[in-house]
Amino acid sequence: MKHLLSVADLGADGIEEVMRVTDSFVEVSERAIPRVPALRGRTVVSLFYEESTRTRLSFEMAAKRLSADTMNFSVSTSSAKKGESLRDTCQTIEAMGIDALVVRHSSAGVPWQVASWVGCPVINAGDGWHEHPTQALLDCYTIRGRRGSLVGLRIAVVGDVKHSRVARSGVLAFTMLGAEVTIVAPPTLLPPSLDGWPVEVSHDLDSVLAKVDVVYLLRMQAERQSEALLPSLREYTARYGLTRNRFDLLPDDALVMHPGPINRGVEIAADVADLPRSLITRQVANGVAVRMAVLFLLLGSEPRA
Ligand code: NCD
Fold it and tell me: How far is ligand 1, taken at its centre, from the CA of residue 259, in Å?
């Protein structure tokens, strides 16, 4: 595999391979000096046209733990502000001699375009409402860590599916690994068509909760909503928020997940987010090791031509 653009590029076998390599990098991350020389002399550049806390820092930490050099392109302080095109920007950065580009952009498809312009591996760190493959990988890894496998698990993905790249990549990955996914959302927060989505759909969270192994909450992505899709956030929380009462409807061993950033009190109650069965910080911790695995698999074997 040359790039990581979609979860579909990996297939079930590819996801399993990432999981296996991640196991060894979790071990590295637990060492007193959590660093290996695997990518010494390589340079990984983050090209983020959209804001990010976790994903950008996680890729940076992953690259550093592999001893790669890292550079960060931040739109607000770059010549993109002077009107330089995306293509010229990518080719300029590539001309400096880099080994990988990690790309986030608010438009779907941009990482594919970038991959067609540059010679180095490109990793999609989130494109519009479309895909976020490393998030799906770290979520699979986190579930596997608690349950051993995803085969036969029932996962409810709840909330603003329409605007969620996390949901698109997650549903693909979870079902490829054998989980059964139910999407739970008000009709206005579903994509216009769910053709080809291997999921069940429900509008009633209360009836779903008693039967799930994992409840995966999505952030209410207000910045992506140009029209009024909800009567109010309070009404959304009343029907779809994971309140403490709803948490108590879950089976005793069910897990709670969220990609972050969380809106406490909207899609998840503040106290539920901090319960031991909430894996939100475990997801973040695993994200570093998963991204180490992705960088290693894409860059580890061949030195730059
Ligand atoms: C998500 C993103 O930006 O796609 N966050 C993340 O990467 N962990 C989800 C979100 O913004 O809601």
Answer: 6
Residues 8-54 pLDDT 10s: 999 999 999 999 999 999 999 999 999 999 999 999 999 999 989 99
* Per annotation, catalytic residue among 54, 147, 203, 211: 54
pLDDT tens column, 226-278: 777 888 889 999 999 999 999 999 999 999 999 999 999 999 999 999 999 99
Q: What are 163's two structure tokens? A: 């605007």
Q: 300 in ligand 1 pocket by Cβ < 6 Å?
A: no
List, as one string, the DSSP characters of 200-230. Answer: EEES-HHHHHTT-SEEEE----GGG--S--S
The yes-or-no answer on residue 258 being catalytic is: no
The yes-or-no answer on residue 132 being catalytic is yes
The topology (CATH level 3) of 133-281 is Rossmann fold (3.40.50)
CATH class of 7-131+284-299: alpha beta
Domains of the chain, by residue range, sit at: 7-131+284-299, 133-281
pTM: 0.96
